[in-house]
What we know:
Layout: H1 10-16, E1 17-18, H2 20-24, E2 32-36, E3 39-42, E4 50-53, H3 55-60, E5 67-68, H4 89-98, E6 106-110, H5 116-127, E7 133-136, H6 139-145, E8 171-172, H7 174-178, E9 186-190, H8 194-198, E10 215-216, E11 223-224, E12 229-230, H9 233-242, E13 250-254, H10 260-271, E14 276-279, H11 282-286
Parallel strand pairs: 1-7, 2-5, 2-6, 6-7, 8-14, 9-10, 9-13, 13-14
Antiparallel strand pairs: 3-4, 11-12
Amino acid sequence: xxxxxxxxxxxxxxxxxxxxxxxxxxxxxxxxxxxxxxxxxxxxxxxxxxxxxxxxxxxxxxxxxxxxxxxxxxxxxxxxxxxxxxxxxxxxxxxxxxxxxxxxxxxxxxxxxxxxxxxxxxxxxxxxxxxxxxxxxxxxxxxxxxxxxxxxxxxxxxxxxxxxxxxxxxxxxxxxxxxxxxxxxxxxxxxxxxxxxxxxxxxxxxxxxxxxxxxxxxxxxxxxxxxxxxxxxxxxxxxxxxxxxxxxxxxxxxxxxxxxxxxxxxxxxxxxxxxxxxxxxxxxxxxxxxxxxxxxxxxx
Length: 300
């Protein structure tokens, strides 16, 4: 890629981020499936964050017609060696089918609080091959603040068959990352905070620091802290250009366990990067293997 790559048309952002007004007008559309993905991640000093379910919040108030999905309990492999491991095809098919989601449906995701809980569900559905998945721009807070309808009543659900059509190119493992560390055409992106990237602060996952030759592009810097909305396309693209990502032919995003990295993955897809993937298990796996190198960029 080059720095003069033309921006994607506005319709790409509009397809992936729908407004409350758009969704409100379509609450009775039988082709839509709305999913509340609320869950909060509570960082721990070492190791995976503790996930606090948003089910109680959903049961108190949700967008009419919305079902509930928790990225940690519903869409992570319980047999995985690490927290948040990408689920099996059978698990995805069973859970989506139980919720009455078919391959033909346009799925709209939203949450309260941490955006990564929503983008991780997006990432799983996207990688499972679902054709149309969008996020509610501004999430539950914007919907509520605009005084749009809420309910505590769960919808009636009719189970339906679901078939995964996996996009394997969207998932990278440790060996895949290791094989491209010296490849000038690939950028490996650390989506954690700058302090975590440097290894000088914040939670770590067994060994502080970053994967060698990776670049820092914190996911939290891609979000307006006042509105919890992603920043404009030109700002996001400039951030990726500054990190050397937009110029690279291939991008691999990682973090602690693949949650913050899903925000970066969503942005890469929205901006039209042609070849991106997410390192599933990320530093939870990398740090646990002493044969895999870690850099302390902030060391004296």
